[in-house]
TrEMBL record, chain A:
<dbReference type="InterPro" id="IPR038561">
    <property type="entry name" value="SoxD_sf"/>
</dbReference>
<dbReference type="Pfam" id="PF04267">
    <property type="entry name" value="SoxD"/>
</dbReference>
<protein>
    <submittedName>
        <fullName>Sarcosine oxidase subunit delta</fullName>
        <ecNumber>1.5.3.1</ecNumber>
    </submittedName>
</protein>
<keyword id="KW-0560">Oxidoreductase</keyword>
<dbReference type="InterPro" id="IPR006279">
    <property type="entry name" value="SoxD"/>
</dbReference>
<dbReference type="GO" id="GO:0046653">
    <property type="term" value="P:tetrahydrofolate metabolic process"/>
</dbReference>
<dbReference type="GO" id="GO:0008115">
    <property type="term" value="F:sarcosine oxidase activity"/>
</dbReference>
TrEMBL record, chain B:
<dbReference type="Pfam" id="PF01266">
    <property type="entry name" value="DAO"/>
</dbReference>
<dbReference type="GO" id="GO:0008115">
    <property type="term" value="F:sarcosine oxidase activity"/>
</dbReference>
<keyword id="KW-0547">Nucleotide-binding</keyword>
<dbReference type="InterPro" id="IPR006076">
    <property type="entry name" value="FAD-dep_OxRdtase"/>
</dbReference>
<dbReference type="InterPro" id="IPR001763">
    <property type="entry name" value="Rhodanese-like_dom"/>
</dbReference>
<dbReference type="GO" id="GO:0000166">
    <property type="term" value="F:nucleotide binding"/>
</dbReference>
<keyword id="KW-0963">Cytoplasm</keyword>
<keyword id="KW-0285">Flavoprotein</keyword>
<dbReference type="GO" id="GO:0046653">
    <property type="term" value="P:tetrahydrofolate metabolic process"/>
</dbReference>
Amino acid sequence: MRLPCPICGERDRREFYYQGAAVALNRPAPDADAAEWEDYVHLRDNQPGDLDELWSHDAGCGAWLVVTRNTVTHAVSGAKLVSEAAR
Amino acid sequence: MGFDRLTKGFSGLRVLKEGLTGNKGWTPHWRDPAPKPEYDIIIIGGGGHGLATAHYLASQHGITNVAVLEKGYLGGGNVGRNTTIVRANYMLPGNSEFYSHSLKLWEGLEEDLNYNVMHSQRGIINLFHSDGQRDAYARRGNQMIAQGDDAILLDRAGVQKELPYLDFDQTRFPIYGGLYHKRGGTARHDAVAWGFARSADSRGVDLIQQCEVTGIDIENGAVRGVQTTRGAIRAKKIGIVVAGRSSQVAAMAGMRLPIESHILQAFVTEGLKPCIDHVVTYGSGHFYISQSDKGGLVFGGDLDMYSSYASRGNLPTAEHVVEAAMTLMPMIGKARMLRSWGGIMDMSPDGSPVIDRTHIDGLYVNCGWCYGGFKATPGSGHTFAHLLATDAPHPVAARHRLDRFRTGRGILDEEATGSQHNLH
Ligand SMILES: Cc1cc2nc3c(=O)[nH]c(=O)nc-3n(C[C@H](O)[C@H](O)[C@H](O)COP(=O)(O)OP(=O)(O)OC[C@H]3O[C@@H](n4cnc5c(N)ncnc54)[C@H](O)[C@@H]3O)c2cc1C
Ligand SMILES: [Zn+2]
């Protein structure tokens, strides 16, 4: 599996660290209730198909990316910097 | 019963008689019934856990108006593709008593099922490679003894005596010793599914294959039944036991679970003469191995470490596993690898399973077994059947609740890596 880093280009999967579904970017407000925090920290859609994920290009430029990857075929259909995705 | 067992069940006499008469007397192990319009309990998933649940519902609770619905064939999921290790060397309260209970069920399973599941208590040796690891294993061993299981702390010479073929001179992770769990071992994975299936079927449970659940019917907060590729089936209670597909099936009831699906690969070599007597684990190198009764060396390592619904892995993990194998056990380089495969597993944030009711009346989940659910097969079925039959958690599974993630109380983080998805 190879991932297209927007800065470095396509690189081997082993250069990246995986953090899971990109839901981590939607942090609830500090005073959100327990259900919202549970949802954010632990619950996942986890359906087969396209998934937005967080990967860090550890052994490359060090950037955090949002990569859209199909969890059934491993085909990657997009990758952008978190700083751009968050905008 | 005694005579019936000799003529219909399995026995030495029966095997001898069939051997002398051309093995013509064997019959199918279970019926192939069409679904009835309604059952008391529907179990979604004909894997090891679902079939065990059906067996214990019938044998322990006398509930036999039960259907197990399986989208493929019985035992075609993870129960048929794991590395077959059975052990009770857990440490945290909650996990300790659960796996201890499960191992005791394994020890009586062949008699209970009248089926040879080839449960082989060949012993497991978990290697350690530093002082800190030795202390952690000593503590774990004490906990295992305290919970009524067995553990022996071996020093380097002790390991050398048991496993002379390891590379003791390696500099990467020198071998300091190992934790020896003698009652641990392996079992024949397919036979476990078949034994539970045959027992449940013979007690009247309908095992329905090629029947995929495509919807769960809910009215006024209570389950009414399921939609399947073979029509609608009504039920008062429904248990979801679908291993790596838990999130998919739970979504049919509008639920989200604390689960990410990941792939775990395994590998097997050509058949060899007996050379590895135990199960050996090499945690620091992410590698473990045993030899199957057919002679193949069966081994694996870590997850591929990203979400996956593909029943195959990627090569970097295969390479990593093989590197670790060569470091620990150079002789393995002479064996030819025949096959590798992957299974989809539910990974929970704390690495421990969930056996619980849901907020929907009559809907129950049994999920999150991660890469360790095979050893749990009897324990999972036993405690889930108890929950389905009585609506109360079985005492040894009382901590495997869904709400532990919301409250943070009772998180069962066996590896002490934190309750975070990508760490388990
Ligand atoms: C490579 C590998 C190695 C492993 N090694 C070990 C080990 O050494 N020791 C250990 O303890 N554990 C091990 N495990 C984990 C263990 O295999 C699993 O945790 C356990 O088998 C899961 O329970 P099960 O047997 O019921 O699952 P499965 O056999 O997967 O059963 C689930 C069933 O549900 C069915 N299903 C799914 N969706 C639907 C639907 N919509 N409708 C109807 N049916 C459906 C599936 O077809 C499947 O048959 C390993 C796993 C893998 C992949
Ligand atoms: Zn980069």
